[in-house]
Protein backbone atom coordinates (compact mmCIF):
# COMPACT_ATOMS: atom_id res chain seq x y z
CA UNK A 1 0.00 0.00 0.00
CA UNK A 2 2.93 2.39 0.50
CA UNK A 3 3.15 2.95 -3.24
CA UNK A 4 -0.58 3.36 -3.62
CA UNK A 5 -0.57 7.00 -2.53
CA UNK A 6 1.12 7.82 -5.83
CA UNK A 7 -1.32 5.84 -7.96
CA UNK A 8 -4.36 7.11 -9.78
CA UNK A 9 -6.57 5.14 -7.39
CA UNK A 10 -5.68 7.27 -4.38
CA UNK A 11 -6.73 10.51 -6.07
CA UNK A 12 -10.28 11.62 -5.44
CA UNK A 13 -12.36 12.55 -8.48
CA UNK A 14 -14.39 15.46 -7.11
CA UNK A 15 -16.86 15.45 -10.00
CA UNK A 16 -17.87 11.86 -9.22
CA UNK A 17 -18.00 12.37 -5.46
CA UNK A 18 -21.05 14.61 -5.90
CA UNK A 19 -23.04 11.60 -7.04
CA UNK A 20 -22.75 9.72 -3.74
CA UNK A 21 -25.02 10.46 -0.76
CA UNK A 22 -22.28 11.31 1.75
CA UNK A 23 -18.59 12.13 1.71
CA UNK A 24 -16.13 9.47 2.82
CA UNK A 25 -12.36 9.52 3.47
CA UNK A 26 -9.79 8.59 0.88
CA UNK A 27 -6.71 6.47 1.45
CA UNK A 28 -3.64 7.99 3.13
CA UNK A 29 -3.07 11.67 3.82
CA UNK A 30 -0.26 14.00 4.78
CA UNK A 31 2.23 11.94 6.81
CA UNK A 32 -0.37 9.18 7.17
CA UNK A 33 0.00 5.78 5.48
CA UNK A 34 -1.80 2.44 5.25
CA UNK A 35 -5.10 3.84 6.45
CA UNK A 36 -7.45 1.34 4.80
CA UNK A 37 -8.66 -0.13 8.12
CA UNK A 38 -9.42 3.29 9.59
CA UNK A 39 -10.94 4.53 6.32
CA UNK A 40 -13.40 1.63 6.22
CA UNK A 41 -14.37 2.05 9.87
CA UNK A 42 -14.94 5.80 9.55
CA UNK A 43 -16.96 5.32 6.36
CA UNK A 44 -19.24 3.01 8.34
CA UNK A 45 -19.74 5.64 11.06
CA UNK A 46 -20.56 8.24 8.42
CA UNK A 47 -23.13 5.91 6.86
CA UNK A 48 -24.72 5.30 10.27
CA UNK A 49 -25.04 9.03 10.92
CA UNK A 50 -26.44 9.64 7.44
CA UNK A 51 -29.13 7.03 8.13
CA UNK A 52 -29.82 8.36 11.63
CA UNK A 53 -28.62 11.93 12.37
CA UNK A 54 -29.10 11.27 16.10
CA UNK A 55 -26.52 8.46 16.07
CA UNK A 56 -23.63 10.55 17.52
CA UNK A 57 -25.75 11.09 20.64
CA UNK A 58 -25.68 7.35 21.32
CA UNK A 59 -21.89 7.53 21.63
CA UNK A 60 -22.00 8.74 25.25
CA UNK A 61 -19.06 6.79 26.70
CA UNK A 62 -16.15 8.70 28.20
CA UNK A 63 -13.43 6.38 26.88
CA UNK A 64 -10.92 7.84 24.47
CA UNK A 65 -12.08 5.76 21.50
CA UNK A 66 -15.75 6.73 21.81
CA UNK A 67 -14.86 10.39 22.28
CA UNK A 68 -12.69 10.30 19.15
CA UNK A 69 -15.51 8.71 17.13
CA UNK A 70 -18.06 11.24 18.34
CA UNK A 71 -15.76 14.17 17.63
CA UNK A 72 -15.19 12.83 14.12
CA UNK A 73 -18.93 12.56 13.47
CA UNK A 74 -19.88 15.90 14.95
CA UNK A 75 -17.53 17.56 12.52
CA UNK A 76 -16.16 21.03 12.85
CA UNK A 77 -14.36 23.26 10.42
CA UNK A 78 -12.41 20.43 8.76
CA UNK A 79 -13.51 18.36 5.78
CA UNK A 80 -13.79 14.59 6.16
CA UNK A 81 -10.08 13.98 5.52
CA UNK A 82 -9.12 16.66 8.02
CA UNK A 83 -11.39 15.08 10.63
CA UNK A 84 -9.86 11.70 9.84
CA UNK A 85 -6.41 13.07 10.58
CA UNK A 86 -7.65 14.44 13.93
CA UNK A 87 -9.14 11.02 14.71
CA UNK A 88 -5.81 9.34 13.97
CA UNK A 89 -3.87 11.83 16.10
CA UNK A 90 -6.17 11.16 19.06
CA UNK A 91 -5.71 7.39 18.98
CA UNK A 92 -2.30 6.61 17.49
CA UNK A 93 1.29 7.58 18.19
CA UNK A 94 3.47 8.95 15.38
CA UNK A 95 6.92 7.68 14.57
CA UNK A 96 10.04 9.65 15.42
CA UNK A 97 9.75 11.56 12.14
CA UNK A 98 6.12 12.50 12.79
CA UNK A 99 4.52 9.97 10.43
CA UNK A 100 1.58 7.69 11.19
CA UNK A 101 1.84 4.19 9.72
CA UNK A 102 -1.36 2.28 10.52
CA UNK A 103 -0.21 -1.07 9.21
CA UNK A 104 -1.73 -3.88 11.24
CA UNK A 105 -4.69 -6.13 11.78
CA UNK A 106 -8.19 -4.79 12.33
CA UNK A 107 -8.21 -6.25 15.84
CA UNK A 108 -5.26 -4.20 17.07
CA UNK A 109 -5.93 -1.08 14.99
CA UNK A 110 -9.61 -0.70 15.95
CA UNK A 111 -11.02 -3.32 18.31
CA UNK A 112 -8.30 -3.26 20.96
CA UNK A 113 -9.12 0.42 21.48
CA UNK A 114 -12.90 -0.06 21.40
CA UNK A 115 -13.33 -2.40 24.37
CA UNK A 116 -15.55 -0.13 26.46
CA UNK A 117 -17.69 0.71 23.43
CA UNK A 118 -18.31 -3.03 22.87
CA UNK A 119 -18.85 -4.22 26.45
CA UNK A 120 -21.62 -6.70 27.26
CA UNK A 121 -22.13 -7.79 30.88
CA UNK A 122 -22.75 -11.51 31.31
CA UNK A 123 -24.16 -12.89 34.55
CA UNK A 124 -24.58 -16.63 35.03
CA UNK A 125 -26.18 -18.66 37.80
CA UNK A 126 -25.55 -22.38 38.24
CA UNK A 127 -28.80 -24.34 38.42
CA UNK A 128 -27.15 -26.71 40.92
CA UNK A 129 -25.19 -24.65 43.44
CA UNK A 130 -26.86 -21.31 42.53
CA UNK A 131 -23.47 -19.63 42.47
CA UNK A 132 -23.47 -16.43 40.43
CA UNK A 133 -20.61 -15.16 38.29
CA UNK A 134 -20.30 -11.96 36.26
CA UNK A 135 -17.88 -10.87 33.58
CA UNK A 136 -17.56 -8.36 30.76
CA UNK A 137 -17.19 -9.50 27.16
CA UNK A 138 -15.94 -7.01 24.57
CA UNK A 139 -14.86 -9.27 21.70
CA UNK A 140 -17.23 -11.60 19.88
CA UNK A 141 -15.57 -14.45 18.07
CA UNK A 142 -17.71 -16.66 15.85
CA UNK A 143 -16.15 -20.10 15.50
CA UNK A 144 -16.46 -22.47 12.58
CA UNK A 145 -19.79 -24.27 12.46
CA UNK A 146 -21.24 -24.80 9.01
CA UNK A 147 -24.37 -26.36 10.49
CA UNK A 148 -25.48 -23.13 12.17
CA UNK A 149 -26.92 -19.99 10.62
CA UNK A 150 -24.97 -16.73 11.05
CA UNK A 151 -27.57 -15.33 13.44
CA UNK A 152 -27.18 -18.41 15.67
CA UNK A 153 -23.40 -18.11 15.64
CA UNK A 154 -23.62 -14.45 16.65
CA UNK A 155 -25.94 -14.95 19.59
CA UNK A 156 -23.75 -17.84 20.72
CA UNK A 157 -20.67 -15.60 20.49
CA UNK A 158 -22.38 -13.01 22.70
CA UNK A 159 -23.55 -15.37 25.43
CA UNK A 160 -20.71 -17.91 25.47
CA UNK A 161 -19.31 -18.20 28.98
CA UNK A 162 -15.64 -17.91 29.84
CA UNK A 163 -13.69 -19.81 32.50
CA UNK A 164 -14.61 -17.09 34.97
CA UNK A 165 -18.08 -18.63 35.15
CA UNK A 166 -16.91 -22.04 36.37
CA UNK A 167 -18.31 -23.20 39.69
CA UNK A 168 -15.87 -23.46 42.60
CA UNK A 169 -16.78 -27.11 43.10
CA UNK A 170 -17.05 -28.32 39.54
CA UNK A 171 -17.17 -31.96 40.63
CA UNK A 172 -20.31 -31.23 42.65
CA UNK A 173 -22.12 -29.32 39.94
CA UNK A 174 -21.02 -31.61 37.12
CA UNK A 175 -22.69 -30.58 33.89
CA UNK A 176 -25.32 -28.42 35.55
CA UNK A 177 -26.74 -25.76 33.28
CA UNK A 178 -26.14 -22.07 33.71
CA UNK A 179 -28.90 -19.50 33.60
CA UNK A 180 -27.45 -16.59 31.65
CA UNK A 181 -28.49 -12.94 31.74
CA UNK A 182 -27.05 -10.30 29.43
CA UNK A 183 -26.72 -6.62 30.22
CA UNK A 184 -25.95 -3.73 27.87
CA UNK A 185 -24.24 -0.74 29.55
CA UNK A 186 -25.30 2.73 28.42
CA UNK A 187 -21.78 3.30 27.07
CA UNK A 188 -21.98 0.28 24.72
CA UNK A 189 -22.76 1.24 21.13
CA UNK A 190 -21.04 -1.35 18.94
CA UNK A 191 -20.95 -5.14 18.61
CA UNK A 192 -18.14 -6.32 16.30
CA UNK A 193 -18.24 -9.98 15.30
CA UNK A 194 -15.00 -11.59 14.20
CA UNK A 195 -15.95 -13.89 11.32
CA UNK A 196 -12.40 -14.47 10.08
CA UNK A 197 -12.33 -18.13 11.13
CA UNK A 198 -15.67 -18.86 9.49
CA UNK A 199 -14.00 -18.07 6.13
CA UNK A 200 -17.10 -16.58 4.55
CA UNK A 201 -16.70 -15.27 0.99
CA UNK A 202 -17.99 -11.78 0.37
CA UNK A 203 -21.10 -13.01 -1.46
CA UNK A 204 -22.39 -14.39 1.87
CA UNK A 205 -22.77 -10.95 3.43
CA UNK A 206 -26.45 -10.92 2.50
CA UNK A 207 -26.95 -13.92 4.82
CA UNK A 208 -25.97 -11.91 7.90
CA UNK A 209 -28.87 -10.80 10.11
CA UNK A 210 -29.82 -7.16 9.54
CA UNK A 211 -30.26 -6.59 13.28
CA UNK A 212 -29.59 -8.18 16.67
CA UNK A 213 -31.39 -7.53 19.94
CA UNK A 214 -29.59 -7.89 23.27
CA UNK A 215 -31.66 -7.44 26.42
CA UNK A 216 -34.06 -5.09 24.67
CA UNK A 217 -31.33 -3.02 22.98
CA UNK A 218 -31.30 -3.05 19.18
CA UNK A 219 -28.11 -3.20 17.11
CA UNK A 220 -28.27 -2.93 13.32
CA UNK A 221 -25.81 -4.13 10.71
CA UNK A 222 -23.96 -1.11 9.34
CA UNK A 223 -20.71 -2.46 7.95
CA UNK A 224 -18.76 -5.57 7.04
CA UNK A 225 -15.01 -5.30 6.58
CA UNK A 226 -13.34 -7.37 3.88
CA UNK A 227 -9.72 -8.33 3.41
CA UNK A 228 -8.06 -9.38 0.19
CA UNK A 229 -4.50 -9.03 -1.09
CA UNK A 230 -3.47 -7.41 2.23
CA UNK A 231 -5.95 -4.58 1.66
CA UNK A 232 -9.07 -3.76 3.69
CA UNK A 233 -12.31 -2.56 2.13
CA UNK A 234 -15.87 -2.73 3.38
CA UNK A 235 -19.50 -3.10 2.48
CA UNK A 236 -21.89 -0.66 4.16
CA UNK A 237 -25.61 -1.11 4.76
CA UNK A 238 -28.19 1.49 5.78
CA UNK A 239 -31.13 -0.95 6.04
CA UNK A 240 -32.21 0.01 2.51
CA UNK A 241 -29.15 0.42 0.30
CA UNK A 242 -25.80 -1.33 0.01
CA UNK A 243 -22.51 0.51 -0.53
CA UNK A 244 -19.10 -0.66 -1.69
CA UNK A 245 -16.29 1.35 -0.12
CA UNK A 246 -12.63 1.34 -1.06
CA UNK A 247 -10.65 4.43 -0.10
CA UNK A 248 -8.07 3.74 -2.82
CA UNK A 249 -10.58 3.95 -5.66
CA UNK A 250 -12.11 6.96 -7.34
CA UNK A 251 -14.88 7.36 -6.52
CA UNK A 252 -14.38 5.49 -3.23
CA UNK A 253 -18.07 4.79 -2.71
CA UNK A 254 -20.79 3.22 -4.84
CA UNK A 255 -24.43 2.90 -3.82
CA UNK A 256 -26.64 -0.01 -4.89
CA UNK A 257 -30.28 -0.77 -4.18
CA UNK A 258 -29.59 -4.51 -3.95
CA UNK A 259 -26.69 -6.56 -2.67
CA UNK A 260 -26.62 -8.61 -5.88
CA UNK A 261 -25.57 -5.57 -7.90
CA UNK A 262 -22.43 -5.00 -5.82
CA UNK A 263 -19.18 -5.82 -7.57
CA UNK A 264 -16.70 -7.28 -5.06
CA UNK A 265 -13.46 -9.00 -5.96
CA UNK A 266 -13.88 -12.76 -5.41
CA UNK A 267 -10.66 -13.08 -3.37
CA UNK A 268 -12.08 -10.89 -0.59
CA UNK A 269 -13.25 -12.62 2.58
CA UNK A 270 -15.30 -11.31 5.47
CA UNK A 271 -13.33 -10.07 8.48
CA UNK A 272 -15.56 -8.19 10.94
CA UNK A 273 -19.32 -7.59 10.91
CA UNK A 274 -20.22 -4.39 12.78
CA UNK A 275 -23.58 -3.92 14.47
CA UNK A 276 -24.22 -0.41 15.82
CA UNK A 277 -26.68 0.58 18.51
CA UNK A 278 -29.80 2.38 17.35
CA UNK A 279 -32.86 4.01 18.85
CA UNK A 280 -34.87 3.39 15.69
What's the story with the biggest beta sheet?
8 strands, mixed
Share of helix, binned = 10-25%
What class, by secondary structure content? Answer: alpha+beta
- Poorly predicted parts: 1-18
Alpha-carbon distance between the termini? Answer: 38 Å
Give the structure's gist in a few sentences:
The chain has 280 residues and is α+β, with helices and mostly antiparallel strands. Helix content is 22%, strand content 25%. It has one domain.
3D structure, described in words:
This is USP domain-containing protein. It comes from Pristionchus entomophagus. With 280 residues, the chain is α+β, with helices and mostly antiparallel strands. It has one domain. Strands 5, 7, 8, 9, 10, 11, 12 and 13 form an eight-stranded mixed β-sheet that branches. Strands 4-3-6 form a three-stranded antiparallel β-sheet, with no helix packed on it. Strands 1-2 form a two-stranded parallel ribbon. Helix 3 packs antiparallel against helix 4. The chain is globular, with a radius of gyration of 20 Å. The chain starts with 13 loop residues before the first helix and ends with a strand. 35% of the residues are buried. The N terminus is likely disordered.
Amino acid sequence: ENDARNSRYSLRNRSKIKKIPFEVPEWGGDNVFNTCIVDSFLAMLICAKWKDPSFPGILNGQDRFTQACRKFLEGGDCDVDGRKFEFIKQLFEPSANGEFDLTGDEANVILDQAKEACAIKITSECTSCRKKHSSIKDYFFAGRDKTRKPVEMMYTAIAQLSRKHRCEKAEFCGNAEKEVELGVPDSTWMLPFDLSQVIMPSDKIALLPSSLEVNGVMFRLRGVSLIGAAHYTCVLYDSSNWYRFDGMLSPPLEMHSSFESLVIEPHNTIKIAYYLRTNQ
